[in-house]
Recover the amino acids of this structure.
């Protein structure tokens, strides 16, 4: 009889890990950031330590040019098309003061395809020095520029989208996209 016990790796270790792009993007309303420091302001899980969030998509980064949370905004993709549902247009317009999308080297970032935005979200627990930045006077204009479908809805429609069995896909398909 064999004394050792074989331990099977979890399935997630067999999933292919996406190839890491050389540059990731991080949005901020703060100008002239020389060095991004890991923080605990936003967390995916309660036990997450301080981290920096970044994405390989400028479209996704543009959605973070203003402060928001899930209580009034829903972001997702339908058939690989990113969208944002905004249930309080007045609040959004007040918060949309523009910002910067910083380009970051990806070497100290990792992705967890089972957390957050999956392959569209990378995190680092080490400080990072940006290698570039671009200013956008309006988050809305930046989102539209990068291809984010943006919809302003009333609170009843927002709740209906959140409670829909298809995650709101049918409701969203009937909405009018914001254009400039």
């Amino acid at each position: 009889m064999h004394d050792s016990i074989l331990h099977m790796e979890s399935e997630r270790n067999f999933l292919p890990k996406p190839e890491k792009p050389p540059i990731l993007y991080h949005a901020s309303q703060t100008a002239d950031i020389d060095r991004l420091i890991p923080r605990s302001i936003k967390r995916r899980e309660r036990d997450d330590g301080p981290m920096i969030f970044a994405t390989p998509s400028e479209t996704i980064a543009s959605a973070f040019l203003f402060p928001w949370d899930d209580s009034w905004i829903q972001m997702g993709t339908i058939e690989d098309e990113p969208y944002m549902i905004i249930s309080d247009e007045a609040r959004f317009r007040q918060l949309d003061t523009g910002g910067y999308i910083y380009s970051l080297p990806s070497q100290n970032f990792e992705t967890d395809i089972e957390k957050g935005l999956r392959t569209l979200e990378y995190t680092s627990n080490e400080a990072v020095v940006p290698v570039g930045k671009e200013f956008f006077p309006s988050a809305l204009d930046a989102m539209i520029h990068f291809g984010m479908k943006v919809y302003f809805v009333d609170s009843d429609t927002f709740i209906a989208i959140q409670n829909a069995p298809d995650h709101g896909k049918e409701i969203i398909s009937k909405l009018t996209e914001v254009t400039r």
Notes: The helical segments are 58-62, 89-95, 139-146, 155-163, 169-173. Strands lie at 23-28, 52-54, 73-78, 81-86, 99-105, 110-111, 122-124, 132-136, 149-152. The first helix runs from residue 58 to 62. The chain is about 20% helix and 25% strand.
